[in-house]
Specification:
Blueprint (H helix, E strand, L loop, with lengths): L1 H11 L3 H5 L2 H31 L6 H50 L2 H5 L3 H43 L1 H7 L3 H38 L1 H6 L3 H54 L4 H13 L1 H28 L9 H4 L9 E8 L9 E8 L4 E6 L5 H5 L13 E3 L2 E2 L5 H6 L1 E4 L10 H6 L7 H10 L3 H4 L19 H13 L5 E5 L7 H14 L4 E5 L11 E6 L2 E6 L1 H6 L3 H19 L1
Parallel strand pairs: 3-8, 3-9, 6-7, 7-8
Antiparallel strand pairs: 1-2, 1-4, 4-5, 9-10
């Protein structure tokens, strides 16, 4: 039991501030609960007084007074019961609201490295199922915990006052129940965690199947996924049944113990009344209090269930809330004024992903001048995307190896850094919103003229006529209603509307045809004049006009120069350029 209390104390610390925020409402709720219990405890006592008066043949008015007392106690119970429901369950819902907001805020702070090792479905399960368990623990658990302790203690005191010997006999089964409770607590806690972890697996599988529904249909894997889900669901049922068996032992044992206590009361108490050692009113009141013990005793089992679920859920949410992003800005730097101009330098950069053994970038050393354009090319896996993701600190580099305007990126306020960088990925993420909303996501509050301008720059304007509602057309989840090229141009418009000081185009034209690509590139070159622009591309025709080209091979810069300089060398760039030029000529010839 001490270990149980220690675990409860440790887990609840993280969530205690949320409860303290509503301490006034909770205090009112507890006070209303105590008044409800006091009114309930008074009812058997009023019955005792009335029954003990019956042999004296009291006047009807006297019995009516006791009837009024019983009615008043019942009325107080009714009013106060409404009070504790309002002021205990209400704060529980508000605490759930606050924790969910805190959880969402924390999700947005955690970086890409964290989400690489976490499953979205598992995080969703924790934010819904586990949070619901915490709400039940805070609301119903607190209610039963206070109610059971007050009622049990008060009933036992009154029963001892009425007949100490009879109380002793009736309490004989209780030590066995306490021992059973102690033995089961550890097993129930472990099995509860297993059940909730398995529920996360189910949620993850559902999320993955829905997110990849087109792939699933394309490979005709519906039946296979059904079988996998049925197996996972079957395991969940079995794990719940194992947990239910433990509760199935505890709750009936409580009820059986209460039944034994009732038998003792009727047998021994009845004989005491016949022998004249106990009044009939005292016997009625004693059994009334014994009956009142039934709910708190069974409530102990229920609160035990809620507590174990709540503790397990708190532990699972605690893992998220205590997780810290690997990318942070020192508090004193976050408020310091800084304006990104666009000069970029890599100095002896070595980088490997978290938990990876090998470096994907080795001794990278080059500079990109402010306002110039550059291209980074290389084979798949050469480290191109890894390199540019270090600029907005999507991943963290060693201090002093990545600099902007001569300042280590770690010393630049993170919000200012990312606000100054426009990043377009090869596979952009679009929100389930309208085309307009996805564009202005990069600059909330942008006007209609700005939106129209970037739509034209991204070459998306001809497509708008084919959309039913133009800019207000909903793109569907992850942009399901758009083609690959439309997604990329929409993401480009979203980046351009920010007017970034550094624009990174990470193979952002891979889904465009050559003609559209050339048009968009011309627009960007004109628009981004004075903006530091970095191209990552596999088609070298897209990067011929840049100021500087850097060739990566196995994480190292092996060549750099202008297009004309690299063509004159017998290196990787020249080989790839000739190969692509030949492929293009053959394509034209075949047409």
């Amino acid at each position: 039991m001490p270990a149980f209390r220690s675990t409860l104390s440790n887990k609840i610390k993280l969530f205690l501030p949320h409860a303290l925020a509503y301490r006034r409402e909770i205090a009112i709720g507890v006070a209303a609960l105590l008044l409800t219990d006091l009114a309930g405890l008074a009812i058997p006592w009023f019955f005792k007084l009335a029954v003990d008066l019956l042999p004296q043949k009291p006047a009807p008015g006297v019995l009516l007074q006791y009837g009024g007392l019983l009615l008043s106690a019942a009325a107080v119970q009714g009013v106060c019961r409404f009070g504790w429901r309002q002021y205990l369950f209400g704060p529980a819902r508000k605490i759930e609201f606050d924790i969910l907001n805190r959880l969402m805020s924390h999700f947005l702070v955690l970086d890409k490295a964290y989400y690489q090792v976490q499953k979205v479905g598992d995080l969703m399960s924790r934010a819904t199922n586990d949070l619901r368990a915490i709400r039940d623990f805070v609301g119903m658990g607190l209610l039963i915990l206070v109610d059971s302790q007050v009622v049990i203690l008060a009933c036992l005191c009154l029963m001892v006052y009425l007949n100490p010997r009879l109380t002793l006999y009736c309490m004989v089964p209780l030590p066995a129940i306490s021992l059973l409770f102690y033995r089961l607590s550890g097993s129930v806690g472990r099995k509860q965690q297993i059940v909730q972890a398995h529920l996360s697996k189910i949620t993850s599988m559902v999320q993955e199947n829905l997110a990849g529904i087109r792939v699933l249909h394309a490979f005709v894997q519906e039946e296979n996924e059904k079988r996998k889900f049925a197996g996972l669901n079957g395991e969940y049922i079995q794990k719940n049944l194992e947990l239910a068996r433990l509760y199935g032992v505890f709750t009936p044992s409580l009820i059986f113990a209460i039944g034994i206590a009732g038998l003792m009361s009727l047998w021994i108490g009845g004989k005491s009344v016949i022998a004249g050692d106990m009044t009939l009113g005292s016997f009625v009141a004693f059994n009334g209090y014994l009956a009142m013990l039934s709910w708190p005793m069974m409530g102990i089992g229920y609160v035990f269930n809620l507590t174990q679920r709540g503790l397990s859920s708190m532990a699972r949410l605690e893992e998220i809330l205590l997780a810290r992003p690997s990318v942070e800005t020192a508090p004193d730097r976050e408020t310091s004024p800084f304006r990104v101009e666009g000069g970029i330098a890599f100095r002896g950069l070595n980088f490997r992903y978290p938990d990876a053994r090998d470096y994907c970038l080795r001794d990278v050393h080059f500079e990109i001048k402010k306002g110039s354009s550059a291209a980074i090319i290389g084979m798949i896996g050469a480290g191109k995307s890894s390199l540019v993701q270090l600029l907005p600190r999507i991943f963290e580099s060693e201090r002093g190896t990545v600099l902007i305007d001569g300042v280590p990126v770690q010393d630049i306020p993170l919000r200012e850094l990312r606000r100054s960088i426009g990043y377009v990925d090869q596979e952009p993420f679009l929100f389930s919103a309208s085309i307009r909303d996805n564009i202005v996501f990069g600059q909330l509050g942008a006007g209609e003229d700005e939106v129209r301008s970037v739509v034209g720059l991204a070459g998306l304007e001809p497509d708008l006529d084919r959309f039913p509602d133009g800019l207000d057309t909903m793109v569907g989840e992850r942009g399901v209603s758009l083609s690959g090229g439309q997604k990329q141009r929409l993401a480009l418009a979203r980046a351009l509307i920010k007017k970034p000081r550094i624009l990174i185009l990470d193979d952002a034209f891979s889904s465009l045809d050559a003609e559209t690509e050339e048009t968009v590139l011309d627009n960007i070159r004109e628009y981004a004049r004075g903006t530091t622009t970095i191209f990552i591309a596999h088609r070298l025709s897209a990067v011929r006009g840049v100021d500087r080209i850097f060739v990566l091979e196995r994480g190292t810069v092996v060549e750099q120069g202008t297009h004309s300089e690299l063509i004159r060398r017998d290196g990787y760039y020249r080989k790839i350029y000739k190969s692509q030029a030949l492929a293009r000529q053959m394509e034209i010839f075949m047409q």
